[in-house]
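Protein folding task:
====================
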Amino acid sequence: MTHRTDRPATWLVTGASRGLGLHLVRALLAAGHHVAATTRSTDRLLGALGETDTTNLLPLQVQLTDQADVTRAVEETTARFGRIDVVVNNAGYGYLGAVEETTDADVRAMFDVQVNGTWNVLRAVLPVMRAARSGHVINVSSVLGLVSFPGWGLYCAAKYALEGLTESLAAEVADHGIAVTIVEPGYFDTDFLTSNSLALPETTTDAYPAIREMVTAHQAMPGTQLGDPAQAAAAFITIAERSDGPLRQQLGSDSSGFAAAKVEALRADVSAGRALAESTDRVR
C-alpha cells in the first residue's frame, strides 16, 4: 500500500472536466475522497458534475503548460487537504492525421500538454510525496502508447514519450515509498472522439484516403465504444489502493488484446534480428 486507506485519500486529477477524468472525479467524491481537480474551466467542471456533492472538491483552473500555475495548484491542494496521496495525470487530447499533414505547431502543442504538462505536475508534486514517503502517481497513457496505427502518429509519439518518462520515474522514486502506474485505456464511451477532444490537421492531402476513411469512422463511433467509463473510474481506485499491481495496466479488453499482440510481434522481431544484432559485437 502506497498510502493509508484508513482515511479519505487526497487525489489530484488533471483533465477533470471531460472523459475519464470527469468520471473519476465523480467516483472519488461519491466514495468520500478529497479531490483537487484541474481544468481549463472550473465552470465547465462544476456544470458537468451537476448535482454531485462537491463538499470535498477543490476545483482548480490551471494551465498545465505553466509551471508556476501548476505549482500554485499543488500548494492550494496541500493547504486545503494537508497532503496529496494520488496524482492522476489525465489531461490530453487526440489527433488524427497523417505524419506528413502534421505541422510543427501541432507537434509542439501535443507534446506541451501530454509530456511537458505532465512533467510540470511531477516536478510540483513529487517533493510533497517524498516528504511523506508515500504516494501513487498514475500517468494515463493509451493502448496507443504501446501499439501504433496509421493516422495516429502524433498521438502515439506523445504517449510513447509519456511511457518512457514513466518507466524511468518508477525506478527513481521506488525508494521513496512512491508507486507509479501507467494506465493504457482502449476505446471508452466518452467524448474523446468528438470535436471537443479530437484534433484534425488544418490541411490534408489526397495521398492518404485510408486515413480520411478512418477519420469518418472515428467521428461516427461515439456511443458505440466497448469500454464503460464508470468501470474505468472504479479501476483507477483499485489501482491506487493496491501495492502489488503491474507497472502497466491496460483498461478494456481491446487494449489488453492489442498489448498481447504487440508483445508477440516484438518477440518475433527480436528473434528474427538476433543474428545480425550479435554480428555487430567487437570480435575479441
Remarks:
- The chain has a mean pLDDT of 95.
- The CA atoms of residues 153 and 163 lie 15 Å apart.
- The helical segments are 19-30, 42-49, 67-81, 104-132, 153-173, 209-219, 229-241, 253-279.
- Strands lie at 10-13, 34-39, 57-61, 86-89, 94-95, 135-140, 178-185, 198-199, 248-251.
